C-alpha cells in the first residue's frame, strides 16, 4: 500500500505543509507544558494552556508565512531549508515573547510560561527539520528499492568522500549505490563506514569484479595530478567511467548536489597541481593600479582580466577588435567584481593613431600585451598579417608605453619563438627581440624607464587554437580523429595556470627578462587522442579511427622553451625561470623592423620572410613554401 501511495505522490500542496507544520508546533507546545510541569496535568491546567496553544500557533503561522519555510520540496530538504526553519522558529519565539510581555503589562499575568516558550522553540525546530529529513529518507529508500541503481565506488574515505556518499545515497535523483571505498591511507583501510568497507587500492581489481562496479568517483581534495592519472588509467583499462567531485568553492550556494558530479575529462589530467602565488606581491603590483590588457577578448587576455580584477585594481582597460567576445567579457567581469571600474574599447593594435589616443587617455600603470595572431598554419599562409600584428603592433604598443611613462609592459610570447620553424613563431621572436633591445637601449641612457618583461610558454588547454576542442568535435561526430604525425609532442598548460604565472612574472620582473614557465612533461598527441577517445567510453581504432595527416606548414615535431645558446636562471618561484638570451642592438633591430613597413606595402611575401630570416638566423622553415629561402643560404 505504501509503495503505491508514494509512486503516485508528487509534491504536496503548500497549504498541506503549513497545516503539518502547525500540528508539529502544537505537539512541541504540548511537550513544552509536559516537560515544564513534570507531566502534572492539574498544574498544567492552572496555567490555562489553551491560551498558550493559541499564541504559539498564531505566532508560528505568521512567521511561517513571512519566512516561507513551507516553500521547500520536502523530499529535497537540505541545509538551506534548515536555515529557513531556524529563522522561522526564532522569529516565532520573539513574537511570542513580545505578546506575552504586552499581555503581562496589561493584566499582570503571562499567557504562557517563558520556560514553556523556550522548550517549544527548541523542540519545534528539531521536529520541523527532522520530520522533513525523515520524509526525504523514506523517499530515498523507496526509490532505491524500486529503481535499479548502478554500483559505484568512491576513492577517498575522508570528509569529502563521506559527503559524496551521503548525497548519492539520499538524493532521490541518484542512480548510484555506493558499495565500496578505496583509500591510499593504510590507517583507514579495513574499516567499515555505515556498512561500506574501505579497501586499499591494491584490491581494486578484486573489488570491482566481485561487486560489479560500473563507476568510480574521485572524492579527494587537492589530489595529486600523477595519482589522479594513475587512477583514471586503471579505470579506463577496466572500462569504468570515472567522475570527480568539484572543489567546495564551486558547489552551488555551498552545498554539493549530485548534478555537480562531472566526468573526468582530458583537462583534468593535463592540468597540474595547484600553483601557489606570492599574493602580497601581486596585491602590491596590481592594487589601485590602472591595468591595460590588449587582446582582452582572447583566451589568455580574458583570463588575465578575470584574475587581475581580484586584486582590486583602480581600473582595468580592455582592448580588442572582437566586439562580441569583448562585450561578453565586460558583462562577466561586472558581475564578478562590480566594484572594479572597467573601460572597454574596440580597437586594433596596429591602428597607431587610435591606440595612441587610448594609451594617453587611460594613463595605465601596467600593460599586459596578449594581442597576437597565434595559429601556425594560418600565419604561414598569411605572413603579412603575422608581421603586421605580431611585430609592428608590438612595436607600436612598446613605443607608446615608453612615451606614456607606463611602469611595466608584460608581453605574452610562445615556445614557438624558440628555434622558430614558422612565420608565426619567428614573428613572436622578433617581437621579443624588439622589446628587450628597447629596454636595454633605455637602460643605457639611464633614468626611470618602462620595464619590459616577456613571458614564454607553450600550448594552453581550451584556447581557441588548441587541438583539444578539435578532437572533442571529431569524437562527437564519430571520427576519424586526425593527428598530424605519430611522434608529434606538445607541452600543455591550463589557461588559468598560465595567467597566474604571467601575473607572478609581471610582479617579480624588473625589466629585460624573458621568463619561461615549467611546462611539465611533453605529451604525445597520439596518446592524448587515444585517452580522449577512451574517456568518451569508446575504443581507439575500434569505435573511432585515428588518421595521420602529416605535419602542416611551419609545424614542429616537438616544441622547445630554450634554444641551444640559451640557459636559465632560477627565481623564487619554482615554476618560473629566466632565460639568458643574447642581446641585440636596438638601432639595428629598429631599422630592420622599419623595412617591414615598406615590404608590407609591396606585398612581397618572399622578401618579408627573407627579412625575418635575416633578423633571426635560427629561423628554418618546416614543411613550408618558404623552405626555398633556406636553400639559398
Textual characterization of the structure:
By secondary structure, the protein is of the alpha/beta class. The chain folds into 3 domains: 2-143, no CATH class; 148-264, Rossmann fold (3-Layer(aba) Sandwich), CATH 3.40.50; 279-458 and 493-518 and 560-615, Rossmann fold (3-Layer(aba) Sandwich). The chain is built from 23 helices and 22 strands. The protein has a 9-stranded mixed β-sheet with strand order 10-9-8-11-12-13-18-22-21, with helices on both faces. A 7-stranded mixed β-sheet has the order 3-4-2-1-5-6-7, sandwiched between helices. Helix 16 (383-403) packs parallel to helix 17 (423-445). The chain starts with a helix and ends with a helix. Residues 1-10 have low confidence and may be disordered.
Q: How would you sum up this structure in a few lines?
A:
The protein is of the alpha/beta class.
Give a topology summary.
Elements: H1 2-8, H2 14-36, H3 41-46, H4 49-67, H5 79-107, H6 114-146, E1 150-155, H7 159-170, E2 176-183, E3 192-193, E4 196-200, H8 204-211, E5 215-218, H9 225-237, E6 241-244, E7 262-263, H10 266-270, H11 279-286, E8 290-294, H12 299-308, E9 315-320, H13 323-336, E10 341-346, H14 352-362, E11 366-369, H15 376-381, H16 383-403, E12 408-414, H17 423-445, E13 451-457, E14 459-461, H18 467-476, E15 481-483, E16 489-490, E17 492-494, H19 495-508, E18 514-517, E19 523-524, H20 525-535, E20 546-548, E21 567-570, E22 576-580, H21 586-602, H22 605-615, H23 627-631
Parallel strand pairs: 1-2, 1-5, 2-4, 5-6, 8-9, 8-11, 9-10, 11-12, 12-13, 13-18, 14-17, 15-20
Antiparallel strand pairs: 3-4, 6-7, 16-19, 18-22, 21-22
Amino acid at each position: 500500500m505504501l509503495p503505491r501511495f508514494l509512486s503516485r505522490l508528487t509534491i504536496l500542496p503548500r497549504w498541506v505543509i503549513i497545516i503539518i507544520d502547525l500540528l508539529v508546533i502544537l505537539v512541541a507546545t504540548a511537550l513544552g507544558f509536559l516537560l515544564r510541569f513534570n507531566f502534572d496535568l492539574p498544574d498544567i491546567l492552572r496555567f490555562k494552556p489553551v491560551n498558550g496553544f493559541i499564541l504559539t500557533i498564531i505566532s508560528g503561522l505568521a512567521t511561517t508565512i513571512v519566512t516561507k519555510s513551507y516553500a521547500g520540496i520536502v523530499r529535497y530538504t537540505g541545509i538551506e531549508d534548515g536555515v529557513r526553519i531556524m529563522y522561522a522558529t526564532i522569529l516565532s519565539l520573539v513574537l511570542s515573547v513580545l505578546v506575552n510581555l504586552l499581555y503581562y503589562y496589561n493584566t499582570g499575568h503571562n499567557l504562557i510560561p517563558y520556560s514553556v516558550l523556550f522548550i517549544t522553540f527548541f523542540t519545534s525546530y528539531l521536529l520541523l527539520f527532522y520530520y522533513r529529513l525523515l520524509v526525504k529518507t523514506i523517499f530515498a529508500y523507496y526509490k532505491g528499492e524500486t529503481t535499479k541503481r548502478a554500483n559505484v565506488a568512491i576513492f577517498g574515505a575522508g570528509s569529502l568522500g563521506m559527503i559524496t556518499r551521503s548525497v548519492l545515497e539520499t538524493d532521490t535523483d541518484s542512480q548510484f549505490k555506493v558499495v565500496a571505498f578505496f583509500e591510499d591511507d593504510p590507517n583507514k583501510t579495513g574499516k567499515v563506514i555505515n556498512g561500506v568497507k574501505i579497501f586499499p587500492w591494491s584490491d581494486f581489481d578484486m573489488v570491482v569484479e566481485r561487486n560489479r562496479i560500473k563507476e568510480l568517483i574521485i572524492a579527494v581534495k587537492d589530489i595529486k595530478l600523477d595519482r589522479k592519472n594513475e587512477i583514471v588509467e586503471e579505470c579506463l583499462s577496466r572500462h569504468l567511467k570515472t567522475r570527480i567531485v568539484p572543489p567546495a568553492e564551486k558547489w552551488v550556494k555551498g552545498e554539493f548536489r549530485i548534478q555537480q558530479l562531472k566526468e573526468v575529462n582530458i583537462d583534468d589530467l593535463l592540468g597540474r597541481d595547484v600553483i601557489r602565488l606570492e599574493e602580497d606581491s601581486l596585491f602590491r603590483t596590481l592594487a589601485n593600479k590602472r591595468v591595460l590588457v590588449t587582446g582582452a577578448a582572447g583566451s589568455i587576455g580574458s583570463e588575465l582580466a578575470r584574475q587581475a580584477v581580484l586584486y582590486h585594481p583602480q581600473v582595468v582597460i580592455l582592448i580588442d577588435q572582437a566586439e562580441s567576445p569583448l562585450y561578453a567579457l565586460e558583462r562577466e567581469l561586472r558581475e564578478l567584481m562590480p566594484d572594479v571600474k572597467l573601460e572597454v574599447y574596440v580597437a586594433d593594435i596596429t591602428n597607431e593613431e587610435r591606440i595612441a589616443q587610448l594609451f594617453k587617455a587611460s594613463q595605465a600603470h601596467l600593460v599586459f600585451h596578449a594581442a597576437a595572431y597565434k595559429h601556425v598554419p594560418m600565419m604561414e599562409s598569411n605572413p603579412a598579417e603575422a608581421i603586421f600584428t605580431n611585430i609592428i603592433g608590438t612595436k607600436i604598443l612598446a613605443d607608446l608605453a615608453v612615451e606614456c611613462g607606463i611602469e611595466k609592459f608584460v608581453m605574452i610570447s610562445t615556445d614557438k619563438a624558440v628555434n622558430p620553424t614558422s612565420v608565426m613563431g619567428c614573428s613572436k621572436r622578433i617581437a621579443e627581440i624588439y622589446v628587450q633591445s628597447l629596454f636595454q637601449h633605455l637602460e643605457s641612457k639611464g633614468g626611470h624607464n618602462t620595464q619590459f618583461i616577456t613571458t614564454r610558454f607553450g600550448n594552453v588547454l581550451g584556447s581557441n587554437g588548441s587541438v583539444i576542442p578539435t578532437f572533442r568535435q571529431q569524437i562527437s561526430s564519430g571520427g576519424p580523429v586526425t593527428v598530424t604525425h605519430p611522434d608529434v609532442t606538445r607541452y600543455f598548460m591550463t589557461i588559468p595556470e598560465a595567467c597566474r604565472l604571467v601575473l607572478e612574472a609581471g610582479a617579480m620582473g624588473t625589466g629585460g627578462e624573458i621568463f619561461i614557465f615549467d611546462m611539465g612533461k611533453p605529451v604525445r598527441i597520439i596518446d592524448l587522442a587515444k585517452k580522449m577517445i577512451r574517456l568518451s567510453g569508446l575504443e581507439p581504432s575500434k569505435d573511432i579511427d585515428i588518421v595521420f595527416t602529416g605535419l602542416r606548414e611551419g609545424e614542429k615535431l616537438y616544441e622547445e622553451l630554450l634554444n641551444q645558446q640559451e640557459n636559465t636562471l632560477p627565481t623564487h618561484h619554482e615554476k618560473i625561470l629566466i632565460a639568458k638570451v643574447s642581446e641585440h642592438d636596438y638601432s639595428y633591430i629598429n631599422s630592420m623592423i622599419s623595412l617591414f613597413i615598406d615590404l608590407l606595402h609591396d606585398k612581397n611575401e618572399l622578401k618579408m620572410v627573407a627579412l625575418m630570416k635575416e633578423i633571426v638566423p635560427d629561423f628554418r622553415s618546416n614543411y613550408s613554401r618558404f623552405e626555398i629561402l633556406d636553400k639559398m643560404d
